[in-house]
Structure formats: structure tokens, C-alpha cells
Design brief:
The complex is a heterodimer of chains A (263) and B (270). Chain A has nine helices and ten strands. With 263 residues, chain A is of the alpha/beta class. The radius of gyration of chain A is 18 Å and the shape is globular. Classes of the chains: A alpha/beta (263), B mainly alpha (270).
Chain lengths: 263, 270
Amino acid sequence: MPGNDQPAIEVRDLVAGYERRIILNHISFTVPKGQIVTILGGSGCGKSTLLKHMIGLYQPKSGDILIRGRSLVEADAAGKRAIMQLFGVAYQGGALFRSLTLGENIALPLEEFTTLTRAEINAKVAEKLSLVNLRNCEKMMPSDLSGGMIKRAAFARALALDPAILFFDEPSAGLDPLSSANLDRLILNIREKTGATIIVVTHELDSIFTIADRAIMLSAETRSIIADGRPSELRDHSDNPFVRNFLNRGNPRPNIQGAEHHA
Amino acid sequence: MIRRDSIIIQAGDTAALIASETLTFIEFLGDMTIAVWNAIRHPRKIRWKETLYYMNVCGADGLPITALICFLTGVIIGYQAAVQLQKYGGETFLPGLVGCTVVRELAPVMVAVIATGRAGSAFAAEIGTMKVSEEIDALRTMGFDPIRFLVIPKMIAMLCMIPLLTIFGDLFGILGGFMVGVGQLDMPLDAYYQTTVIWVKPKYFFEGVFKSGIFAWIITAVACWRGFRTGSDSIAVGKATTSTVVVSILSIVIADAILAHFFNTIFFAR
């Protein structure tokens, strides 16, 4: 089938920033299907800026972003909305709609963009909640959930339309080590069950070594990519002392599932 | 030490800020018009459950305070007018004066000011908080138009409920004047009613209700625009709420002045 071997995401010569300030300067990389990629770097290096451009919230100054071969930059409003349905996003704080129950949050895109019946939507909602270990929580309000549950609920909503690509923004931020490890396990589980390409923005070293097939490291000084490869290889063999130092600051947990051998 | 720019630089910065804010408001109005047009074309896509919720919040929940304030306004106007009119033996003009003032001006404006404080500030805070917690970004990346999702239900609710509240405000305002006329000036109950009916013509009711529709539109547009323009922290939400109240009330007064001129010179010219 034509286009079947095309990468999930292509970032081509991206220049991004706010007003006159350049945050990302000529960034290029490609993410093949099924890979878990973490985007990392120190504070202010442009991780969130890169993510927001990749999910189409901001228009770059120049360059292009292709989602499964379709340009987010050149698409009109309708085309952009169609491309956005190819991916799901779980935000740092969950971004669940607080006036809706958990079930309604997950059902929302299904009601809007599919022709499923109410019974089919309910079944799909239950399936997604079950996938993130939140069985029978359909009627709960977001205000009733703990931090870890909110993150998992956000994962379930991101998965609602069975997207081929998932973006997770700082999934472990603000969680205790146990919840964080559970979330890492969940990310690996989601990849195993759905085969989705997953982009995770994080600076949690434990998570990076546990889940990532590949790490892309940004630098605030050069405003560009300073490292791209397997996390353990970058930690042990990178030419850049900043990269080695950054990745050696924490001792990685014992590997949960051997993510690096999965790719 | 606080650095102070010269007055010319400050004036220039302020002018540039006003110009850029005006441009974003015009852009927002354009997006809102498209969303309203799409809602008219596809009414099934309107979020009716939310619309009914906002109707309840803006209308039913606001009725007691609206009734009380309009009643007291009628009492105040009636009392002040009665004191002056008694000096010249013009007490019989009281029902017409109170009726026309309340129906044409005071009820629509008072209801709009109350709605700005209750609904407008709530809309700005709600959308602003959603922006801070990335819910607006989530809507966009899920492929939703945030204006259709968040603004249209509020706009429909306000356009339905503010004119209704204004009609209630008219009745309670007239009742306030009636209490003064009958209670203080000893006017016969029937005479007060008959004089009010003679003076307060249906076209004045139409004027008041029409104005209230315009005010509802202004309040919703300003509140939602300020909400979407909120910065990224809780202080910004507070600022958005405050500016909603200030900008809405200023816009309402300006619009009222224009509409008063419009109705008196064009519509009621003959």
C-alpha cells in the first residue's frame, strides 16, 4: 500500500519561537511508526514549544511538520482538524473537562467524530477506561480523582479515537515514584496493545530509561538537537559532556520491561 | 528602582496595546460570527444540554436579584420624581415618568449590569481557567472549534434570558413606582395603572427588549473574548474577570447612548 512505510512524524527544518524570540532553530528529525521517543532537556530548552508545534497549536516561523505524510503547516483549518484526529494528546495536568464526568470526557470525541451508537460509545468508553486501569469510573467527576488517576484518565481520552500517534506531556510530573513507575508501565502496555507511536516530553530520567526507544535532547544554548539516540548509549557514549552529565545525574531504576529491546 | 518611561513612550505603548487588543476583538467577532452561522445551519450540533444549564444560571438564578434591584430602582425614581413633581402639582405625570424611564432605559441597563457581574465575569473566569488548565488546547487538538463548543451555548442562553429578565425588570420597576405613587401620593390604584398604560407604549417595551438583546450579545462577546485572551496563571484569570466587567459596562453605556439616539431620531421620529 503506498505510503504505508512513511514515518509517523517528520519535523523538517523547524524554526519556532514567540514574536522575535527564537526557541527552536532548524530542528529536523523523523519518528518511525511504533517507536517511543522521549524529548528531553533542561528547563527553557523548548520541549513544550516543540510539542505544541507538533500537535498543531502553534504555527512555526518556518519549516514543516508532517503527521503520517500530511503537513500540519500547510493544511487549512478543516485539513488541520482532520490531521489532529490522527493523534491523541495527554496534557501535563490532564486537561479533563471538569464539567463532564470521566465517561463523558472520553465519549466526547466519539460522539463528535464517529457514527457509533450510544451503546457502542459506552462500550468503547469502558474499554478505554479498562485499558488504563480505571474500570467502572465512568460516572466519576475529574475533581474526585487523584493526580495519578487524572493522568490515566487523560491517557484514556487521548486513546478514544484509536489514534496511531500519542503525545504525552510530562506524564510523570507531580507524581510519587510508585505512581510514576505505574504510568511508565502503562505507556509500555499501551504501545504493546495498540502499536501506537508515542512521543513523551519529560525530564524524568527514570521514565526515559524505562520507556524510551530513543531520546531526543534539546539545548537551550544552541536551540537545537544536541543528542539523538538510545538513552543508555547517549548516557554512556555521547560525545557531548553535557548530555552524559544530564543523563548520569540519576540512577535508572531496574528496567521494568526492557523497553530498549522492544523497538 | 522602578524605571519610568517618558509620557510619550507610555502613550505610544498604550495606543499600540489598544490597537492590538481591538484587532484581536475584531478577529474574535469574525470567528464568532462564523460559529453562529454554522450553528444556525446545523442546529443539531449545538450543545443544548450546556445551553439549558447556562439559561438556568443566567436566567432563573438571576431573577431574584434582578427583581429586587429593578423594584428598588422604581421606588427610588418614583420617590425622587414625586418630591419634585409635588412642588408643581404634577403628580399625575409620575406613572408615565417612572414607566417610560424604567422600560426604555433603566431596566435594560440595570439587567445588563447585573448580568455582567453575574454571568459575564463567570464566563470569563470559566474560559480563562480552562485556558490555564490547557482544556482549550485539548479541545483544539481533539479537532473541536472552541468557539462553537464554549461560546455558542452561552450566547444562545444570554440572548434568550436577558430580554426575558428585562421584561421582569420592567414589571418590578413599574411596581416600585406604583408603591410610591399609591403609597405616598395617594393616587388611586386604577388611575395609576391606566396612566401607565397610556404613557408606556408597546414600542417602548420593544425598544427596551431590543436593547437588552444587544447588551446580551456585548456581554457574552466581551466575556468570552477576555476569557480566551487570559494569560497562563491564576492572576491572569482575575485580571480577565475584572476587565470583562469594566469593558462590558463601558460598552453597554456606549451602545445605550447610540441606541437611544437611533430610536429617538430614526425609529420614534414621528
